[in-house]
């Protein structure tokens, strides 16, 4: 223990002064030592100091042993100066609203990473002509970030970087991180490299998940059973794709809402900026995924507005599930979930148990956690693990006479 302590901060005595709020002066003097002791161990400053000592030693050892190009930024390192003088003035009193897009690609196709760097909730200020570092976690289980390149943000705040052929990544799910050199702001996304004929299930967020009108409001309620339906498809091994016509400036808000309600992890795609016809943008995006990445959509969920989108993609009415009241006009074009997600989940479970084995299909093992919860290390990068043959037939879950309420069903597996 003493040897480890010496490697952290040596043999010197360490004293730490804590700030005493005015509220504590009203407490009895006898109670103050206990409060101060508790506040010492709960202090974020103390925790940050200890972590800096640990990470500083670990990073040095890792670089010496693995010779990896890790992220050079640390809390103690100074920020780089802005390349443009007016950038400092532009960014005064505004908060960062950066985002890095989730990307789906193939091994033989282009692997292009895209990010946009804006400030203010409505993208009022653009980061222009400044450096942005691009990192990828090429071995997700290791937790090591590898620096690929440094790009300049263009006049619209966008950074697009195509991975060169010599560095192309194989099948797997790879975290992306883009860091603004001058401000040290960072945002993350995912690069998913898929095999051909990858089977996916598409969920439109607007109108199908949220029971109220707008995610921009105070926390809209989630439709009962929606989380369990998504988790059912994820457990079967399908890639989950969330799509919305909302502009990408709302990414942080939407992802936070999905995280708060423990929606299973998946790829999220937004419209680029404000568009007049979001349904057309959805159609174009999904069609490009089918043509360029060769994905296969097994089922698609949405609201009444999404029926035209899924019909344009050539999906059959048995593959389209619409939340809402049945309509005679569309009754032959989709399946209405008039009884809610809970009844639909029971139908899915019964159908997948009773359905006979089908021809081999390509699926992918992804992390099975939720957006807001840590999952086990299910990021599998090896080809043998990612490409596998599965049948739809699953083992029968235990039958319970009384179904659990929605709150109990929506708990992740780790909590159960």
UniProtKB/TrEMBL annotation:
Domain DDHD: 1-56
Any one Gene Ontology cellular component term annotated for this protein: endomembrane system
InterPro entries for this protein: DDHD_dom, HAD-like_sf, HAD_sf, LNS2/PITP, PI_transfer
Keyword Membrane: yes
GO MF annotations, alphabetized: metal ion binding; phosphatidylcholine binding; phosphatidylcholine transporter activity; phosphatidylinositol binding; phosphatidylinositol transfer activity
Pfam families associated with the record: DDHD, LNS2_PITM1-3, PITM1-3
Main location as per UniProt: membrane
Chain ranges passing through the membrane: none
Bilayer disposition of the protein: Peripheral membrane protein
Region (Disordered): 390-416
Annotated protein name in UniProt: Membrane-associated phosphatidylinositol transfer protein 3
